[in-house]
Write a structure and sequence with these properties.
The structure holds 2 protein chains of 2 kinds.
Chain A: H1 2-12, H2 20-26, H3 37-45, H4 62-74, H5 84-101, E1 105-112, H6 115-122, H7 124-140, E2 147-150, E3 155-160, H8 165-179, E4 182-186, E5 189-193, E6 195-202, H9 210-226, E7 232-233, H10 244-251, H11 255-260
Parallel strand pairs in A: 6-7
Antiparallel strand pairs in A: 1-3, 1-6, 2-3, 4-5
Chain B: E1 9-14, H1 22-35, E2 40-44, H2 49-56, H3 64-69, H4 74-77, E3 79-80, E4 86-89, H5 102-115, E5 121-125, H6 132-140, E6 143-148, H7 152-169, E7 173-181, H8 186-204, E8 214-222, H9 226-232, H10 237-240, H11 245-258
Parallel strand pairs in B: 1-5, 1-6, 2-4, 2-5, 6-7, 7-8
Antiparallel strand pairs in B: 3-4
Classes of the chains: A alpha+beta, B alpha/beta.
């Protein structure tokens, strides 16, 4: 009751909402009287946009806080890609879907080469900028159903659901070309970086768990690193992995009978 | 881009699936071309070396990898064969899974460039599957020769090969050789397989504004019981039996390739 009154009093006097002290105090409640102090503090410490900017006559819209917290729990703050936690959950989901539909789910792991050198030579801001540029390039080159994630310091992953290995290789080759070289301007300098890419696919008949699939993709990526970096590595294609529609169309011809006819 | 001027015309012989008779076909085709006066080199970029070894009765001391490592020169590695064509064995150094590092690729390309003037035709016998090595040689070739049999598995693998090469390297023309066709009417098998594959390609790969992919049926080769007999005698059938249906079809194939203009862009 007391709180409501206090809120009402504050809102009746908009001037009181201005200034840092007043702001801190007024932040603690929304229009329903919920205490939002902790949520706002987390968002502020995570460097997220300040939801108090959205404050209106009824206080801070609760939806804005919920949206901001959801965003924080899913996304990587630096690059805006989804974070490792969300990525692993999404990958497990897609592997499950693949086992059900029989359509392959592919996974790409992407690692910036010699990233430590960038940090050491140009500082962490430059390193961050490299990661942001890489993430932006990834984001722009994917289908809407694909998921790009930052899963480690300079390691990224892309889930390509419902994608044959052939199509994944086509997508992978395109992305690999966009990232090699990755051109980043730091002040007056133009850095030309390379990235190593590992590409694997989950067999719908014998699906691996998400950890195994990531480790397989990592192995391909390390193979790319060992062989001179800036490369795309993948397991040999089993040529029989074409889409069910294509398979049906190809199987419809009765060609052997023709050749056996003597 | 590969220079066209007076160089050898390069063919990558691929199959997608193994066991379609690609190596035997390549060796006989190369022998037929050599017999018609074409300077022909076969680059064995495949584990199939063991097969070619038996077929031709050669025992290579050096391989392409020795050239890459600098322990042998190209002339030491290239060996004349009883088929009248030259063989460049890649050895086990270039099996699938080999890392085609930029330096290795550079050495290979320089080597092939230096051989260009010595030959009219170069065949890459690039192995089964669509791994990195096969794709690499396909990229170096002016033309891809896809060996396919009427078997459904062979058709599917050939289709997957076309799909990959079209999408990755913008290849829009593929030469098709249909092997193990009808013993008396191989051309019928050939045109049926080509028509079927072309239909599926047009439906799935050339639809909706994508570049048109064209299959050119270059030749049809019949099943011929004389072929396995010749293999077991370590002979090339085109050299021992000039009248067998197989030999006749190989010579037709050779004529079709020899007649090709050398100005077609890769």
């Amino acid at each position: 009751m007391k709180r409501k009154e206090r809120m009402a009093r504050k809102l009746s006097n908009p001037k009181q909402l201005k200034g840092p002290a007043a702001k801190e105090d007024s932040l603690s409640v929304d229009e329903k009287g919920l205490d939002l102090t902790a949520a706002l503090r987390i968002l502020r410490h995570a460097g997220r946009p300040d939801p108090t900017q959205l404050m209106n006559d009824c206080g801070i819209p609760l939806q804005a806080i919920i949206d901001a917290l959801c965003d924080l729990s899913v996304h990587d703050g630096l690059t805006g890609l989804v974070n490792a936690t969300f990525f692993h959950a999404a990958l497990s989901r897609e592997i499950g879907r693949s086992a059900r539909t029989g359509r392959t789910c592919c996974l790409m792991v992407i690692d910036a080469d010699h990233f430590k050198r960038v940090n050491d030579t140009y500082g962490h801001h430059a390193g961050d900028y490299v990661l942001q540029t890489l993430a932006q390039t990834l984001k722009q080159s994917l289908r809407s159903m694909d998921t790009a994630a930052r899963i480690g310091g300079e390691e990224f992953a892309v889930i390509l659901p419902e994608c044959t290995p052939e199509d994944a290789l086509i997508a992978g080759t395109r992305i690999h070309a966009l990232l090699n070289p990755l051109i980043v301007r730091i002040g007056d300098e133009t850095l030309r970086l390379t990235t190593s890419v590992g590409l694997v696919w989950a067999d719908p008949q014998d699906p691996a768990d998400s950890k195994t699939l990531v480790s397989q993709a990592d192995q391909e990526m390390y193979r790319a690193k060992r062989s001179g970096r800036g490369r795309l590595c993948h397991p040999p294609l089993k040529t029989t992995q074409i889409s069910p529609e294509e398979r049906a169309a190809l199987a419809s011809g009765n060609l052997e009978e023709n050749s056996n006819d003597q | 881009m590969i220079s066209e001027a007076r160089g050898a015309r390069r063919y990558a012989v691929v199959s997608g699936k193994g066991g379609v008779g690609k190596t035997v076909l390549t060796a006989n085709l190369a022998a037929a071309l050599a017999a018609s006066g074409k300077r022909t080199l076969v680059v064995d970029a495949d584990l199939g070396l063991a097969n070619l070894d038996i077929i031709l009765g050669v025992n290579p001391r050096h391989t392409l990898m020795d050239v890459v490592r600098g322990t042998a020169s190209a002339s030491e590695v290239i060996m004349p064969t009883s088929g009248g064509f030259d063989l460049l064995p890649a050895g086990s150094g270039l099996v699938e899974g080999t890392m085609l590092t930029p330096s290795l690729a550079g050495t290979l390309e320089a080597l092939l460039g230096s051989l260009d003037a010595n030959y009219d035709l170069i065949f890459f016998d690039a192995g089964a599957g669509i791994g990195e090595v096969v794709l690499y040689f396909a990229r170096l070739a002016h033309e891809i020769l896809l060996v396919v049999t009427p078997e459904p598995t062979s058709i599917m693998d050939a289709y997957a090969t076309i799909k990959i090469m079209a999408r990755l390297y913008q290849k829009t023309e593929f030469g098709l050789i249909v092997n193990l066709g009808n013993p008396t009417h191989p051309a019928q098998t050939g045109s049926a397989v080509a028509r079927h594959l072309q239909q599926v390609i047009s439906k799935f790969l050339s639809a909706g504004g994508q570049a048109t992919i064209r299959l050119n049926l270059i030749g049809s080769v019949p099943r011929d019981s004389a072929v396995p007999q010749a293999i077991s005698r370590q002979q090339l059938l085109v050299q021992t039996d000039s009248h067998s249906p197989f030999t006749r079809s190989i010579y037709q194939l050779a004529a079709a390739l020899a007649d090709k203009k050398l100005s077609v862009a890769p």
